[in-house]
Specification:
Number of strands: 0
Mean pLDDT: 83
Low-confidence stretches: 9-16
Distance between the termini: 57 Å
Structural class: mainly alpha
Shape: elongated
Order of helices and strands: HHHHHHHH
Length: about 180
């Protein structure tokens, strides 16, 4: 036997196959939120700075988009297309923005149903993107967008996991088989 083989103890030989499998915690894991990851769970890892950055970024983008739409409206005025078309464009963007705001705000508090009309509203929400940006800005002032929904789901999953773990009694493989009557 060589010196290397003698120096190994049984504990060293029985190491786990992958370090990732040993490091994975038991129980439900929090779902990451876009731009925030899982920092919303404990409000760590730059959570406040991310919220401030996302709020500032969304409001600056909304203001820039409003100026862009203003220039487009002025282009319609320069093109002398008529008052009906000019007013129609303004009303169209106002309606689309309000619907996009409402749908975006609603999406922060509940998940859409699988058969909902969310897919058909994508075009409308794209036209009214300013409303979505404003909803994102307002939600970032209080919490990460969708944090309340994710936190409720995560806490429910943790409670269910704890309930399932507490009702277990020992190793099921070590139990004696039931007697037949």
């Amino acid at each position: 036997m060589s010196d290397d083989q003698r120096d190994q103890t049984p504990a060293e030989a029985a190491e786990p196959e992958s370090p990732a499998a040993a490091a994975e915690p038991a129980g439900p894991q929090p779902e990451p939120i876009k731009f925030f990851g899982t920092t919303w769970v404990n409000h760590d890892g730059g959570y406040l700075l991310r919220r401030i950055g996302m709020a500032v970024g969304s409001i600056v983008t909304a203001v820039a988009a409003a100026y862009l739409l203003r220039f487009a409206y002025e282009g319609l005025e320069i093109g002398n297309v008529g008052s009906f078309l000019s007013i129609s464009v303004v009303v169209l963007f106002a309606i689309c923005s309000s619907i996009a705001f409402a749908k975006t705000w609603e999406s922060f508090s509940r998940r859409p149903a699988p058969s909902s009309d969310e897919a058909s509203l994508k075009g409308l929400k794209a036209i009214g993107f300013i409303g979505s940006l404003i909803a994102y800005f307002l939600r970032c002032l209080a919490e990460a967008p969708g944090e309340k929904l994710h936190r409720a789901e995560y806490e429910k999953a943790l409670a269910e996991y704890a309930r399932r773990r507490s009702t277990r009694s020992g190793n099921p493989a070590a139990r004696r088989p039931k007697r037949k009557k």
